[in-house]
Specification:
single chain; alpha/beta; Rossmann fold; five-stranded parallel β-sheet; 6 helices; Rossmann-like_a/b/a_fold; Universal_stress_UspA; UspA; Universal stress protein family protein
């Protein structure tokens, strides 16, 4: 089993990475970081350039857990909320982690009413426990 973290290039993802690392260490298991890209064919090089692996490594060092085993998984999704949600849920179903850690950001009341969110979709539809890490104000 493992602990999975849904990763994005926002500050809430850094918090989720840190908490995911702590949870994996506490449970004595590996950490799997899931990052959704629009297309694996075009975006693998860009994703690496964006420093996903570097961000993960930095987050692990910041938690004093640099020796934690970690795997970064890129999954093809899209840019729409529903596409990202489906891609993450598919990866979670395949990996079967014991816990999924996600970051959440604050949204305006208008955004909440009309747009929905990846975090909301994951919380409602995931088949595993979900830990939500919210950035402070």
């Amino acid at each position: 089993m493992s602990v999975a973290v849904a990763h994005h290039t926002r500050s809430s993802s850094a918090l989720a990475l840190a908490e995911g690392a702590r949870q994996a260490a506490y449970r004595g298991t590996d950490l799997v970081v899931i990052h959704v890209v629009e297309s694996l064919d075009q975006d693998i090089a860009e994703a690496n350039k964006a420093g996903i692996s570097d961000a993960v490594e930095a987050a692990l060092k910041a938690t004093s857990l640099p020796d934690l085993r970690c795997d970064v998984r890129l999954v093809a999704g899209g840019s729409e909320i529903s596409q990202v949600s489906e891609a993450l849920l598919g990866a979670v179903k395949e990996l079967e982690p014991e816990l999924l850690v996600i970051g959440a950001r604050r949204r305006s009341p208008m955004g909440k009413a009309f747009l929905g969110s990846v975090a909301q979709n994951i919380i409602l539809d995931a088949d595993v426990p979900v830990l939500v890490v919210k950035s402070p104000r």
